[in-house]
Amino acid sequence: MFRATIAKKPRIAFANRAAFSTTARAMTEGATGAPPKTGGPGDAFQRRERAQEDYAIRQREKEKLLELRKKLDEQQMHLKQLADHIDEITKDQGGEQN
């Protein structure tokens, strides 16, 4: 009889534990449960977060553009040096066009 009692307890405990199981809530991106109050796309936290992300993206794009502009200036300076060098070589050759 003692053996039968022990065998039944784990089944009951397992059955009770299964009754209290929870599932993960499925939420869409940015769904905090707060409706847009001022006509914007969500609550103040969402708007602030989006503004900070947009600002960070604009800063990175600005830095990239500055780097590209610097590289472009260096390339143009190099091309000007090459053109000047070509002009010097062609002046020494003479001819009707020079």
From TrEMBL:
Residues 25-55 are annotated as: Disordered. It comes from the Eukaryota. SUPFAM superfamilies: F1 ATPase inhibitor, IF1, C-terminal domain. The lineage of its organism: Eukaryota, Fungi, Dikarya, Ascomycota, Pezizomycotina. InterPro entries: ATPase_inhibitor_mt (IPR007648). It is found in: Mitochondrion. It comes from Pseudallescheria apiosperma. One of its GO terms (molecular function) is ATPase inhibitor activity. Residues 28-37 have a biased composition (Low complexity). One of its GO terms (cellular component) is mitochondrion. This is ATPase inhibitor, mitochondrial. Keywords: Mitochondrion. Inhibits the enzyme activity of ATPase. Belongs to the ATPase inhibitor family.
